[in-house]
Amino acid sequence: MVKKALKSLMLFGLSIFALTGCDVPVLQPQGPVAEKQFHMIIWSSILMLFVLLTVFTLFGFVVFKYRANRANDDDYEPDLEGNTKLEILWTTIPIIIILLLAIPTVITIHDSMKNPSPDKKPITIEVTSAEWKWLFRYPEQGIETVNVVHIPADRPVHFVLTSAGAMNSFWVPSLGGQMYTMPDMKTELWLEADKPGRYDGRAANFNGENFAHMTFTVVAQKQADFDKWADKVKAEAPALTMKEYKKLLKPGLVGKKVYSSYPAELEHASDMDMPGMKGGEASEHGKH
Amino acid sequence: MNMENIKDFLLHDFFVTGEPMIYMADVAIILVSLAIVFVLTYFKKWKWLWKEWLTTVDHKKIGIMYIIAALAMLFRGGADGLLMRAQLALPNLHFLNAQHYNEIFTTHGTIMIFFMAMPFLFGLINVAMPLQIGARDVAFPYLNAISFWLFFFGALLFNLSFVIGGSPDAGWTSYTPLAEKGLDPGVGENYYLIGLQLSGIGTLASGINFIVTILKMRAPGMTLMKMPMFTWASLITSVIIVFAFPVLTVALAMLTIDRLFGAHFFTADSGGMPMMWANLFWIWGHPEVYIVILPAFGIFSEVISTFAGKKLFGYKAMVWSMIVICVLSFFVWVHHFFAMGAGPAVNSFFGVSTMLIAIPTGVKIFNWLLTLYKAKIRFTTANLWALAFIPNFVIGGITGVMLAVVPADFQYHNSYFLIAHFHYVLIAGTVFAVFAGLHYWWPKMFGHMLNERLGKWAFWIFVIGFNVCFLPMHFVGLMGMTRRLYTYPADLGWTPWNFIETIGAFAMGVAFIIMVYNIYWSARYGERDTTGDPWNGRTLEWAVSSPAPEYNFATIPEVKSLDAFWEMKKNGEVEKWRKQPLEPIHMPDNSYRPFVISVLFFIAGFGFVFEWLWLGVIGLIGVFLCLALRSFEKDEGHHIPVEEIERTERAAGRL
Ligand code: HEM
Ligand SMILES: [Cu+2]
What is d(CA B420, CA B422) in angstroms, rounded to the nearest whole number? Predict the structure, then answer.
């Protein structure tokens, strides 16, 4: 029942946007994480639509019916002051609505901290935001990219995020919600793309002058294509030297870049344990 | 320093140069200042200005000054909003550059919250609350003047950044480490920190002042549960202020110490904790949201009940739901950064606590609807604003609940969906409320009515423009448009929506101009309010003449029930009350010191902004000197003799 209602509502919502011919990534999820969040969006929208319609109807009714210049105002009751039954009613109904919303919320919160597809082997990618670019490091492949991130499709990706400057937030709306990047701290984000494709990513938290241009592309590829790409980068791209790395961290805009390796000094960052991370505490590591 | 150095400093660091818009502002500021000086001199009004306004401790005059300043700030913040909307009307525009846009959204947000919404509400509280409880002033009139002047000079200092030194540009939230010196050199952020610090101290003092006033100065017989709803809202708001503002004071001070003296409370390195700023800011910031919405709820309760001609439905439930909201408001702050990596337990707690706020808020909405049930609704301009609040605010309320759904919030956060949400609560809540309150209490402040025809034009244009501007923002948010973008590419499908939004924004601008014209028109030609009770009111402010006399009540009425004045009228007790014998009335004396202290604070603040510590210290020494002198002053007030009261009452046609 609920499933069916959900489906038809989704179709309705999507068709509105289809009419205007535009992409609405949040409502067109391309992976399991975005899909779960999308379900929560739809479910909360349905409940809230019910609230909205109730209030609008009652409002329209009383404002029209009880206008001062109506023909017959015998029903005017200036001293009406309360009704316990009604008050219990409109406290109970919201409580029920909140319960209907809170329970799936809490369940989904717990799910979203885990691998969305536990039966598949995840790949880890480290993300660093800087002024105004995104750096991606692939500890398993030993390569690094800037402003473009390749991921294997149909495989969960475990992003480990930090910042080399101001705070930022890493957001790929087609694949799922955002997660902040913060200096001296690590956060995690699980995403997965169902199909190969290119997805827009954005910096979501303001970090100064060129914030608007701080976008990146997610390229999801079949595993075999991804491996081929990584091998090619390994073989053909230039190495990322420490000097180049420091240059990258300076404020400014750069294009998309790929590097066949990253400096050994930065290696330890990958096996950093993350004890305080979940509580949002600063980690002792990565101090500079 | 040689001449070259001084010239270099003035042209590069002191005055903001190179922007035509800023030169225009410079010229406008100079012309307006000259015009004011000319008018005051020509009409010989300097003494009047000083005696009647700058040194006044009368709560009604202070309230009016708050409102005038807030209207000016609404103009400034609104102009910022329109500039942003102009820049975003089409993709890739070069109307504003990135830096300029970043400054403008920062000043827009900061001014609207600190220098428009709060002072506007404080103005209305100042005007109406003491009258509603049958008092002759607030508990500490001198402190009240200090609160106002600190707000005024804090706002002045903040606005100065536009032409001197450069505006802050790290958002109204001023997140660290972006707002630290390393990533944001220059004086802009200092203006933010010190301007808010000054006005924040004033706000805290107001909170204490209002609490004491309401608890100690009610007319005989007015028990807590017989207080008007707006007074209740003011009381609860003040309690929130007293608990929340010290957090802001401390956070601002810590960031100031970081920036001025090189400490590391919130820096990214040397052991600082950037995220601590976010926590402190929102521990104050969420309660702040309720500081600007609860008085609004109070205004709507008064206006709806008056123009429904009915008792407020569910009075007790209304009071209790505000108390519950007050408590809950301190336990939800993490919802502003669910995506900062907190664990599932933390996010679940704050998600659910946020949803819970919907319950008392829903109770209030239903009580307003039931107040309208079996009523006789008069569609005055004031009531139109109050009625429009219900459906529009509900849109903001339901998106608020949607934002509390943590996994979904990861998709809405930092997007235009969020911008749409908070403008639906801030505009449909706070702004509609201050407009309703302005029309409602205008006769009590000035003795004449605002024109209804102009008022209704402004109302409809504003409400339609508001929805045209902010409804589409929900959709562009879902399309991936993040907030604080100075421009966007053409190929994402955002363009038509943004264009529509800009049209709506300018409609609101037109409505504002009509409203200001209405103020001018009504001052000249508006209908006089000779009765003191133009709306057939329910609460005590309508028992006195319009405008209210200096001493408010010639004799203090005895309160027997809720809606005290309504009951007096119903039981035919008004004449009897007016004929009570008069006695001399004790009133506080004016004082120049609140103004002077605040000027000294302003000078100190300016010094700290430019990190000229000598100037800061001189200013502060002046402040302490003033405080010391005050402690030697005998301030016993004065008595208004019976003859003068009689004369005033007779002039108002009351004897
Ligand atoms: C004329 C009416 C208004 C217009 C056209 C308007 C427009 C906007 C726009 C377009 C933004 C987003 C800027 C961006 O993220 O790039 C914004 C942000 C904001 N607005 Fe408004 N707004 C209006 C009224 C108000 C009012 C009345 C308030 C508060 C009472 C308010 C409070 C804020 C705040 C706090 C922000 C966030 C600023 C930041 O990101 O630091 N606005 N406004
Ligand atoms: Cu909040």
Answer: 6
> Domain range spanning residue A56?
2-67+82-112
Minimal-distance CA residue to ligand 1 atom 38: B109
pLDDT, tens digit (0-9, with 9 covering 90-100), for A166-209: 999 999 999 999 999 999 899 999 999 999 999 999 999 999 99
> Letter for the amino acid at A150?
H
Model pLDDT, residue B40: 84
Residue B351 makes CB contacts below 8 A (sequence gap 6+) with A102, A105, A106, A109, B335, B338, B404, B405, B406, B409
The rounded mean pLDDT for chain A is: 87
pLDDT in tens, B97-120: 999 999 999 999 999 999 999 999
| pLDDT band at residue B22 using 50, 70 and 90 as cut-offs | confident
Residue A170 lies in a domain: yes
* Reported pTM: 0.94
Q: Specify whether A143 is located in the same domain as A234.
A: yes
Residue A137 sits in the same domain as residue A263: yes
Query: Ligand 1: residues within 6 Å at CB?
Result: B 78, 81, 84-85, 105-106, 108-109, 112-113, 117, 171-173, 419, 423, 426-427, 430-431, 469, 483-485, 505, 508
The rounded Å distance from CA B73 to ligand 1 centre is 13
Which CATH number fits the domain that encloses residue A220?
2.60.40.420
CA distance B494 to B475: 9
CA distance A220 to chain B (A): 19
* Paired tokens of B401: 């609940």
Q: Are residues A141 and A50 in the same domain?
A: no
Does A30 contact B at CB distance below 8 Å? no
- Whether A182 contacts chain B with CB within 8 A: yes
A250-263 core/surface letters (b: 16 or more CB in 10 A; e: else): eeeeeeebbbbbbb
**Per-residue model confidence (pLDDT) at position A1:** 46
CB contact under 8 A, A55 and B487: no
Q: Rounded mean pLDDT of B566-595?
A: 93
Most A-contacting residue of B280, B311, B370 (CB-CB within 10 A), to test interface = B370
User: Does B28 have pLDDT greater than 90?
Assistant: no
The per-residue pLDDT for B196 is: 97
Q: Is A97 left (phi over 0), alpha (psi -120 to 50) or beta?
A: alpha
Question: Number of C-alpha atoms within 13 angstroms, CB side, residue A228?
Answer: 6
Average pLDDT score, chain B: 94
Contact A78, B309 (CB under 8 A): yes
Q: At A38, which amino acid appears?
A: F
* Statement to judge: residues A213 and A276 lie in one domain: yes
Q: Where are the domains of chain B?
A: 1-44, 45-591+635-651
Q: What is the pLDDT of residues B539-553, one digit of tens each?
A: 999 999 999 999 999
Which residue, among A205, A188, A153, has the nearest Cα to A174 in the 3D structure? A153
Same domain, A47 and A185: no
* Distance between CA atoms of residues A229 and A141, nearest Å: 11
Q: Assign domain B45-591+635-651 to a CATH class.
A: mainly alpha
Q: A130 and A93 in one domain?
A: no
Q: Which CATH number belongs to the domain containing residue A23 in this structure?
A: 1.10.287
Q: Looking at the domain assignment, is residue A169 inside a domain?
A: yes
pLDDT, tens digit, for every residue of B146-185?
999 999 999 999 999 988 999 999 999 999 999 999 999 9
Give tens-digit pLDDT for B297-343: 999 999 999 999 999 999 999 999 999 999 999 999 999 999 999 99
Same domain for A172 and A203, yes or no, is yes
Domain shared by A137 and A197, yes or no: yes
CA of B335 to the centre of ligand 2 (A): 6
